[in-house]
Structure formats: C-alpha cells, structure tokens
Amino acid sequence: MSTAVILAPSVELLMGQLVGEFTTTAFSAMALPDADAPSILQEYKDAARLCLDRSLAVALRTRNIAASQQSLLPQEVWCLVWQELPLFQRVRVTHVCHFWRTVGLASHQLWRNVDICPAAAASDARSEAEFYPNSDLEDDYVEGHTFPLNQAQSNVATMTTVRTSIQMLEEILPRSGSLKFHLVIQARMDGYGDYSSRHLARIVKPHVERLSSLHIAFSDTDCATVFLQEVQPFPALRVLTTEFVKENHRPLHNSKFNLKNFGRRDEEDAFPVLETLVLDTPLAWLAKNDSYCHNLPTLRSATVAVSGTTGLMSLLHHCQALKTLHVLAAAGEPDPAASWHPPYFGISPEDNPHRDRRGYYNEERSTNKLYSGDIVRRTASQIRNLNISGITPAAESALFAVFTGPGLSLCRKVAVGYVDEPGSAGLAALFEAWSPARVHFSYTNTGATFNVTAWDAPADGRRKRLSVPCHAAYDTLARIWEHLSLDAITEMTVDAVLWMFITHGMAHMPHLASVTLLVRSAKSPVIPSSRVYFDPARTDGPFAPIKAMQLDGPSSGLPMSVETVVAIICSASTTPRGARNSALETRYTRRKREPTEQRRQNDDYSLTETVFPL
C-alpha cells in the first residue's frame, strides 16, 4: 500500500481501499511497506482518520448509489470505522439518514466508552452547537448562581459548552443498551462546578446500574464529590479513578477528596463491588466529630494520597480486603510532624508520651470512631504488594510503625520512595521487617537519583537476582548491604560506574555466577579497548565464581572478555572511598576522516586510553 493511496482525498478511492483491505479490521491492520515502522503506521492511521473525518458526510449520503464503492462496505466495518472517530463525529454519523441511524443505534458496542469534556475548546463548542442549534443559555440554567465579573465572559462561553456536552451525554447513554459502559468526565470547571455536577448526576443516575468504570479529572474536588454523592449508590462500579488538575489561573480551594457522606448506616453500600480505587489527592474519610465512615468491603487495590497517620489508619480500617496498596505520603497541614504522629494501637493515656498541650492524645478520643487497631493490623498483614512513595523524615517512623511490627505477615513485594535521605532507624526497621521473605524490594531516592531493586526468592530454592542501577549515596548503599541477604544471589545487574558498590557487594556473594554491567552511553569508561590496563593476577578472590559477564547498553555489541571486565573492576577497587566517577580519566580523540566508505561509516568517537588511578 502506498502513501498516496492512504492520503488520497478522493472518497471513492478511500472507500475502495476500505472495502479491499479493511473489511475485517478497519484501521487496526493496515498493510505497511515496513512492518517494523510503528511511527509510519501511526501516520497512516492519522491520515486515514482525517480523510474519513472530512469526507464522511459525502460518503454516507452517496452510500445508497449502486455505483458507489462505499455501498459495498459491510455495516460491521462501518461500526469499526466509527469507533476510531471522536464521539461527536459518531453522533453526526447517526443523524445523516435513517439508514445509518438504524445501523448506529443497533451497534451498542460503539457507545460503551463515553468521554465528556465540559471545558472543551471554543471550536468544539461551535461544532456541538451545529448539532444542537438551540444551545443558547436559558435563564433557568443559571438562576440563583452568580459569578465574579472578571469571569463572566469566560463562564458564559464555557457553560454553553458544558450544557451541549451534557445534552450529548443524555442522548448517548441510552445507545449502549444493556451493556456496561465506561465514563470519562473532565470536570475542569470554574465557579459553577457544583451546579454542573448535579446536572450531570441527574443524567447518569438512571444508567448507574450499567456503569462499570469511572474516571473523573477535576480542578476542584467539590465537583467530583458532589457528582459521586448525587449518583450513589454505584451497584456495578468496579474501577474508580480520579485525576486532580491544578489550574494556574485560579487558586486551589479544596484539595481533599471527601467520602464522609457516602452511604448511611440504614442504607446500602455506595460501592458494593468496587475493586480498584485511585485517588491522587489526600483522602478525607471523616469530618471532625463524625461517627460514621463508609466501608469499601470489596476493595482489593488502592492508590491513595494520605496526609497523616489518621488517614492511613482509617483507610486500612475501612478497606479490609486490600491486597495491593500504593500510599502517596503527602505533607499534612499545617504541621507535617503533628499529622504524621505515631499510630495509636490502644496505649493507655497515662503511658502514651504523645499528648497535646491539654493532655489529650490526638487519636485517643476518637479511636472508636475512626478505626480499630486490631482491624488495622489484620488488614496490613494481608497486603501482598505495598508501595509507599514520597516518604519524608516526618512521616518515616509513623509509616513503618503501621506496616511493621509483631503479628504482621510479610509482604511479597515492597517498594518505598524517599524524598530525602532515609534515616538509619527507619531503613533498619524496613529491612528487618521485610527482608527475610520478600520477593521484590525497591528503594528510590528522588533527590539523589538513586534506586535499588532486589529480588529474593522464597525458601523453595529458586535463584535470586539483584539489580542496582544508581550513582550516588554511598553511605546509604553501605547500610543496604548490611541488611540484604547476599549469600544466595546468583545473578546481578549493576551500573558500571559504581566501582565501590560492585566490589563491596561481590565480596559478599559467594554464589554469584552472572553479572550484567549497565552502560549509560557510548562514552562510558567501561567500553573495551585494546589498551585497557589490568592485572590478570587480580582475577582471583571473590570474582572467581563468575562465569558470565556482559554489557547492556549502547556498547553492548562490543567484545569484552570476562577477564578484562573483572580486571577493570579490580583496578578500580583501589579508588579511595567516596570517589566519584570523575576519578576515572578517559581521553577521547577524533578519528581522522578517510576517503573510503568504510572509514566514513565508522567515523565516531573512540576510546584510545583509560587510566585508573591507583
């Protein structure tokens, strides 16, 4: 297939290609001159979609002409074509004539994924106004709602778009028939979010029994909270994700997602079958002096931002079926240290040293309302995949106190991410609790671009692997070596520039048989050369068991023997402690251009000499 055919503006030619080659797969199986060129495939798909978009109306109107090529296109293929079009274009297709409307309404699969953007661009608003000619603002739509004068003009334009989008949603939802559908709402609304959320909720509520997945992008959490509270309960909702969009032109009024009003004691659960929850803003489970918080009994996977110990403990209390948990540790307001206080598990007030100025412990008075220590421990013990990111010194001890300690079973996979360097006590507690039986452990430090990943096999004798790509924080590396069980590791992948880390680690790995060096760039000092200096006598000792060593990176195709790599590492092992990669002096020279084609192909930077300071 040539590019000219795909890009041809002729409707007849394009439809002929659709009939000949897209009969069963439409856009998903285009024939390409080079099957290994995904970018070209995407260009072809975009060009074909644009051509269809522009000529769709003409093609549909001439479909009933016997001599027309598009009359040969099966209805099933047209449905696949419509799926590739924007939602609004699908609506316009069904309004061309009675025949295509019948075909479109009979294809319920077309309307399962619905994306509504209330804050669409002005061009989209004009396009929707073409379909809805009576889209002017009515008095009853804004009755009782006033807006600041400096936002009046933008609000009027955006509210017109909001109204047409909600009208479109009202017509589209019944088209999916009895099928479950996925709804995406981008509620980037300003000044009138509550009213629009309630209006949207009235449209969705009659079809909530079929809503299986919901994604809400919002600039103010009140919009999402009002919508969920108005629509609840969600009897079929299994996936709920939210995306907080901070807009630069307006202040942040509310950044907490509040579930405190979801459900009541005498009513059915708001989320009876919810399995996956993703909230990227701090979760407010309860208001002050509130005695009830809604439970999520079937929740198995949660990604939640918490701003303090109370929020974390409440999460574990009300989500007792959790198996996968990703905690985004956020700074509490106004005092992060006070928000991330040690958890309360039933310590008597007299023995509790963490009391405020009035002699009361923050959680002591409301423990029975917020959470039960026994339930929290039981939930924490059954989590198998745990990821804690954004750990600060103020939150470190509180977080580890919740997930470590006596009576807790060990997680199968643990990942932690620090904002700053970890404290010795917190790191030691982490390894002491999870190291013996973990399968996967990863540590990240965003400030130093540092991460360690280690896989330890269970007690069934399977081999162990260690992966360490990093280039900083040698003191932290030393502490990690002290806690890792290295005697059974047989495979290792490590950054080639960490000489001190490599040599110190290999000395504790008697069964290490395979090493992979990660090369960052073609100028890495481990690139082999005929003039690399090494001492063959130094290949003894802890490096003797190594049977295979390879490079992984831009220079992975260059030859290098095991003896050469080991010699390079041994030579670098005498570098003083704390020395950085700059201690390796590497000099590059520019190859002289030769007239031959071979010299032009090989014209690049080459390593001529590598000197390791002794």
TrEMBL record:
Gene3D superfamilies linked to this entry: 1.20.1280.50
Region spans: Disordered: 579-614
Listed Basic and acidic residues bias regions: 594-603
InterPro entries assigned: F-box-like_dom_sf (IPR036047)
Ranges annotated as biased composition (Polar residues): 604-614
Protein name, as recorded: F-box domain-containing protein
Source species: Exidia glandulosa HHB12029
